[in-house]
Amino acid sequence: GNSLQRILNVAAFAVSGYASSEGRHCKPFNPLLGETYEADYPDKGVRFFSEKVSHHPTLIACHCEGKGWKFWGDSNLRTKFWGRSIQLDPVGVLTLEFDDGEIFQWSKVTTSIYNLILGKVYCDHHGLMHIHGNRQYSCKLKFKEQSILDRNPHQVHGFVEDLSGKKVATLIGKWDDSMYYINGDGSGKPKDCSPSSSATLLWKRNKPPPNLTRYNLTSFAITLNELTPGLQENLPPTDSRLRPDQRHLENGEYDRANSEKQRLERRQRMVCFHFLDFHVSKLMHSFAN
């Protein structure tokens, strides 16, 4: 296939994952150690599996397979608290491999959440994303950090380069809306990314559902917790959809969801403590002998 078009699509895919984060400043649950989630869409040829594999530090791993490609990665965060804001620096590498052997790898950019104490809470993604390819092309994307007076926030700008370092395509867009590209180094590029310009559309965000959820979930994400007929007996007991607190929340039983969440998290802390205590005792015993 077209290798240049492929890396352009990979870049748009890497950016699109941030689209629904605008307006999502909190989350209902933290995954428990050993908690899993799997999805199988035979009609789309896609299978996905993820698991929380470490509690301290928190580490989540995933693996996904589709028609002609595989995607896997792990996710961890380093946090910095600045008083009125918090900075989240992702640690981990995402890998996308195609059946012809071409591989792309990248890491996520920094996420900051502002006005934690006073004012309207908002998040921003900023930093440099370098998509490394093992063949002809690589890509560098800059997520522009939002300033207080910025009238056009969430901008992303970057280039695709060949092995010699020549810029063969320019990418422009916004992480919460769309991404476009222009062939070449972008000289004389348009001032905006509207379809009427010379830029070609790579990705555009779907319209949000008419009734927004508290966590600003997409129409697709809303369906992921559904237990369809015949599904439950095919899931392992560790699957997220079987968490009682999550089920209570989906049913609108907020008090029961909160109390069950606290019970499960206390249980997790006890399990982790006993696990650590067991291994420390075993280690000390080996030293004594």
UniProtKB/TrEMBL annotation:
Keyword field contains Cell division: no
This protein's UniProt keywords: Lipid transport, Lipid-binding, Transport
Family in the record: Belongs to the OSBP family.
GO cellular component, one term: membrane
The protein, known as: Oxysterol-binding protein
Cited Pfam families: Oxysterol_BP (PF01237)
Function: May be involved in the transport of sterols.
GO process annotations (BP): lipid transport
Gene3D superfamilies referenced in this protein's UniProt entry, alphabetically: 2.40.160.120
Keyword Transport: yes
Single GO molecular function: sterol binding
Region (Disordered): 231-261
Compositional bias ranges of the Basic and acidic residues kind: 240-261
Signal peptide bounds: none
Organism encoding this protein: Gossypium aridum
